[in-house]
């Protein structure tokens, strides 16, 4: 490459990065990530665990690297290290102010107790609720398997502990959202004002799944009872009963105004085209929520260059050059057509702790109180 080409490339890069900084200042730091994961191996008495099958999988090392930790570091400092690293990286973001960190309950046996033999990953509510209070930019997303013997009491406890939502991953927790035995659980969710964030579509992050439980049609029961339901990933992959899950989600969204969806994971290379297809439904924009599915953003499955034929080279270069994963994700989704309404919907949906509301207000006003 000759000197002229080098100079031209440098000029384009500097121009694009300068534009990005201006955009960040203009927009302010007021975005909430509603879909952010943590993990743990039980270090420091956390109570977390990862199944032997998942630890022996090639995915395990990738996840540790994406979280920015090693197994040795976790053994030395405890599982709370992952939350500290998440908070620090989030604090460095110019656009995203806070994130909902998700607990993960396990599979439950016939006696209504945790079945560790069939559970792939477990992140207890008690550990997460305690740890997120230490950070000004993290919120508690609880997880309660409704088949637990004391599920209602657990719901009340996590609500008292500051939970802003309840998270399910039915295909690995073996939860059937359409099971009529769950009606009391749903009514308690509604009473407590806790949204249900539940995975929809296929699941590929674990070693075994029951993907039929991710069928969005199974959400009719909680929706009919008035529960606020958030379909994680907008059912963007897989099929059930001969239909695309996404089409089944769209039909439900027309019937139930209490059905929302997050846009996490929709820029992954295994979901190309899904975000653009979803954004075509303008009537849904006020019910779409920003999320990242962190740490998957940092596993190599998301790249701006996957959109080489949709975005101009200068824009791709600028986005690729953004170091912070949240800022890079926001910039990519903005370039693909995600509007300000979608980026700010989360704040209007969840009951934010006072410390988070204050943080959002401060960051939105350039740090001025």
From TrEMBL:
<dbReference type="GO" id="GO:0019748">
    <property type="term" value="P:secondary metabolic process"/>
</dbReference>
<keyword id="KW-0456">Lyase</keyword>
<dbReference type="InterPro" id="IPR006680">
    <property type="entry name" value="Amidohydro-rel"/>
</dbReference>
<dbReference type="InterPro" id="IPR032465">
    <property type="entry name" value="ACMSD"/>
</dbReference>
<keyword id="KW-0732">Signal</keyword>
<dbReference type="GO" id="GO:0005737">
    <property type="term" value="C:cytoplasm"/>
</dbReference>
<dbReference type="GO" id="GO:0016831">
    <property type="term" value="F:carboxy-lyase activity"/>
</dbReference>
<protein>
    <submittedName>
        <fullName>Amidohydrolase family protein</fullName>
    </submittedName>
</protein>
<dbReference type="GO" id="GO:0016787">
    <property type="term" value="F:hydrolase activity"/>
</dbReference>
<dbReference type="Pfam" id="PF04909">
    <property type="entry name" value="Amidohydro_2"/>
</dbReference>
<feature type="domain" description="Amidohydrolase-related">
    <location>
        <begin position="32"/>
        <end position="311"/>
    </location>
</feature>
<feature type="signal peptide">
    <location>
        <begin position="1"/>
        <end position="24"/>
    </location>
</feature>
<dbReference type="InterPro" id="IPR032466">
    <property type="entry name" value="Metal_Hydrolase"/>
</dbReference>
């Amino acid at each position: 490459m000759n000197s002229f080409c080098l100079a031209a490339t440098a000029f384009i890069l500097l121009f694009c990065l300068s534009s990005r900084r201006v955009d960040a200042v203009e927009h302010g730091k007021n975005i909430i990530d509603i879909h952010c994961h943590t993990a743990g191996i039980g270090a420091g008495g956390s109570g977390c665990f990862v199944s032997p099958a998942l630890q022996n999988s090639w995915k395990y090392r990738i996840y540790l690297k994406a979280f920015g930790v090693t197994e040795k570091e976790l053994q030395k400092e405890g599982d709370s290290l992952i939350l500290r690293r998440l908070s620090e990286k989030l604090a460095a973001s110019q656009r995203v102010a806070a994130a909902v960190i998700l607990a993960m309950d396990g599979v439950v046996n016939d006696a209504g107790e945790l079945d560790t033999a069939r559970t792939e990953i477990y992140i207890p509510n008690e550990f997460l609720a305690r740890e997120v209070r230490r950070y000004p930019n993290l919120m508690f997303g609880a997880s309660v398997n409704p088949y637990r013997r004391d599920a209602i009491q657990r719901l009340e406890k996590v609500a008292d502990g500051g939970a802003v939502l309840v998270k399910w991953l039915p295909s690995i927790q073996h939860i059937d959202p359409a099971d009529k035995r769950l009606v009391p659980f749903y009514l308690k969710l509604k009473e407590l004002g806790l949204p249900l964030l539940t995975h929809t579509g296929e699941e590929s992050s674990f070693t075994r799944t029951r993907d039929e439980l991710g069928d969005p049609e199974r959400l009719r029961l909680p929706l009919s009872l008035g529960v606020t339901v958030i379909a994680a990933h907008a059912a963007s992959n897989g099929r059930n009963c001969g239909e695309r899950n996404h089409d089944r989600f769209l039909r439900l969204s027309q019937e139930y105004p209490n059905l929302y969806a997050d846009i996490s994971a929709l820029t992954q290379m295994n979901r190309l085209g899904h975000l653009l297809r979803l954004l075509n439904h303008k009537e849904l924009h006020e019910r779409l929520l920003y999320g990242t599915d962190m740490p998957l953003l940092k596993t190599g499955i998301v790249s701006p260059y996957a959109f080489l034929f949709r975005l101009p080279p200068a824009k791709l270069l600028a986005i690729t050059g953004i170091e912070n994963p949240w800022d890079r994700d926001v910039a990519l989704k903005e370039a693909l057509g995600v509007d300000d309404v979608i980026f700010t919907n989360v704040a209007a949906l969840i009951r934010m702790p006072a410390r988070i509301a204050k943080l959002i207000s401060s960051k939105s006003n350039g740090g001025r109180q």
